[in-house]
């Protein structure tokens, strides 16, 4: 059995891993895991792995955390240097971005899928103040991203596309998929997005973004799967953690 | 001017950077930036680091923030012993995995416990309800369980038989709730044994020195009101 990637393209970090693996030509078996059906709680993941996606399985080696997976793939499959540069300072800039991303982007940009789609889907109430607070956090992060993080650079960690840009793009697409054009009125970010997608390729982006971009329509036409009981409980817990 | 490290040992990531640099005999100038005096918000510091955060590293013209980035930079530049961040692909992936997980998990909950138990009520004079504190402590408890069950398991250190950046980052995080008076090791003998091994590897004098400031958290005086105004918004953004 070769390399396996356990992914749900509704998840931002899963999309980053999928796009990267495809782009650099990693030979892998895709193991789809449908989060909405609670499949990550039902034995669809390898034995011994935590109940999260993305998961990489390479023989007996099981790895979680998208950053770790991306770096592993980058090194094992000798991705072009720009993805994760060997240069000391250039690589440091990638990790510097990832630190900021963990504080301001991760978690925050995933909230609106929960408040707009998943909570209503299971009939769970969402306090309006959580929605307002999240919107403010997203706005603030976007402003920082455009003005301070990206600034005048072509890409987030320097003059070339890196893993940082991929992870960031997928988080921003999560909010876009919920009907909010985060690039409107943010010309630098819009231009950055164009550059990122030009490198990745329109077809690959279309393929990877398809499912998440379809979620609102699926919810509206009542085509989302009903989560099983044990997953409802997990979803309610997840909702309660939204600040 | 050689390497400069801008640190406040009040902060967990600053402690990890400090201990790492000292342990590996990396030559640096220590620049203390006192967060509780708002020194990170000064114009002077903004010139060094526009993001106004600690830890920050300055190596000639190169300024770097974010503790994991700094630790990895120091690791590579000063060619520290391999066990800190192994060359071997899978061993290194395990460290990357921990460093990624911890930022939004252990770090987050350790920070919130210190702030909800001590910093908000005592230093900033902002009361925290017992319900909120209870939830914060419960979240920490769940995260500690994941740390033991998913990461440490039956190994000597978090990613294998040797100490790595993962252990260093973890122990400095855990000293936050310890300093807030939480007996996190009392019911967790495995974790307690691990923490003792880590402290032994780092060296007790260095470990004590790095934690001198935070261990006095229970005795911190209230901040003056004007400073509180300046600090509060940034703290709220950080705590989430």
From TrEMBL, chain A:
Domain GST C-terminal: 87-231
InterPro entries on file: Glutathione-S-Trfase_C-like (IPR010987), Glutathione-S-Trfase_C_sf (IPR036282), Glutathione_S-Trfase (IPR040079), Glutathione_S-Trfase_N (IPR004045), GST_C (IPR004046), GST_Theta (IPR051369), Thioredoxin-like_sf (IPR036249)
Catalyzed reactions: RX + glutathione = an S-substituted glutathione + a halide anion + H(+)
Enzyme class: transferase
Assembly notes: Homodimer.
Residues of the GST N-terminal domain: 1-81
GO MF terms held by the record: glutathione transferase activity
Domain of life: Eukaryota
Record's protein name: glutathione transferase
E.C. number(s) listed in UniProt: 2.5.1.18
KW Transferase (keyword) present: yes
Keywords: Cytoplasm, Transferase
Gene Ontology CC: cytosol
PROSITE patterns to which the protein is assigned, alphabetical: GST_CTER, GST_NTER
